[in-house]
Amino acid sequence: MKDAMDASQAASSVLTAVSEGELTPIEGTRVMGLIDSFRRTLELTEIEERLQVLE
C-alpha cells in the first residue's frame, strides 16, 4: 500500500475474502486493523512531509 486508495482497495479485498469464506470474520478484523494502522501511518507521514516543505 502506498496511499489511502490502496488501503481502500485492500479493505475491499478483505471484506470480499470474508464474505466468500476465505477468511474468518476474526481474521478479517485483524487484517483490517493492520490496514487501518498502516493507513494512519501513511497519512501522518504525508502530513509531516507537507510541514517540512512549509518550514
What's the short version?
The protein is mainly alpha-helical. It is built from two helices and no strands.
Poorly predicted parts: none
Our count of helices gives 2
What is the average of the pLDDT values?
94
Structural class: mainly alpha
In what range is the share of β-strand residues? under 5%
Order of helices and strands: HH
Report the principal-axis shape.
Answer: elongated
The number of distinct structural domains comes to: 1
Distance between the termini: 28 Å
The total strand number stands at: 0
Radius of gyration: 14 Å
Largest sheet: none
> In percent, how helical is the residue content?
over 70%
Report on this model:
Helices cover 84% and strands 0% of the residues. With 55 residues, it is mainly α. The chain has one domain. The longest helix is centred in the C-terminal third of the chain and has 30 residues, at 25-54. The chain starts with a helix and ends with a helix. The mean pLDDT is 94.
